[in-house]
Amino acid sequence: MSQIPADIERVLLTEDQIQKRVGELAAQISRDYASVDNLVMIGVLKGAFMFLSDLARRLEIPRSVDFIAVTSYGKSAHSSGEVRFIMDLREPTMGKHVLLVEDIVDSGHTLAYLHHTLQGRHPASLRTAALVRKSRRSMDVHLDYLGFEIPDVWVVGYGLDYADQYRTLPYIAELKKSAYEKPGR
Ligand code: PRP
To answer: In whole angstroms, what separates CA 165 from the centre of its chain?
Structure first.
């Protein structure tokens, strides 16, 4: 493992743990969609880019990828949960088998919003996958494929960021409180 940045408190999920679990999820998804002519994997930018690319490469079924970008107003437990589109899909999803791929379910607002929005476009089927979920925090949104439950701490790495940093770390780690409580940041 390369040098761990100073702002990291501890590694929660190592690269090996993540890759092993992604392989298991890919095998399960490949089995579940064995009879489907094409699976459209939709990655939620920016965070899902790593999970989507690793998962997509490990599938053993015909698949294509597309991306969507949204942002939510506020991340606190008391936020409105309002989600705003930044970028829509390139291709229509009507009549297609769709798998929505998220890096993290935190409050659950983003996934709930996207599930509702995509369902309204009448896909042949719609399922959801997330690598990690903060189970103590998230609202009750249905996940078909989940990598790991994690504690309610600020996590970075493997697509997850703090101020757009740390996304490319190959592991998921807890960020030190001092990193996001620094004056002026
Ligand atoms: C993060 C993450 C999820 C969402 C989860 O995205 O990638 O999409 O938050 O949070 P929620 O369950 O509370 O809705 P963010 O809005 O930070 O954008 P990013 O992926 O571009 O960092």
So the answer is: 17
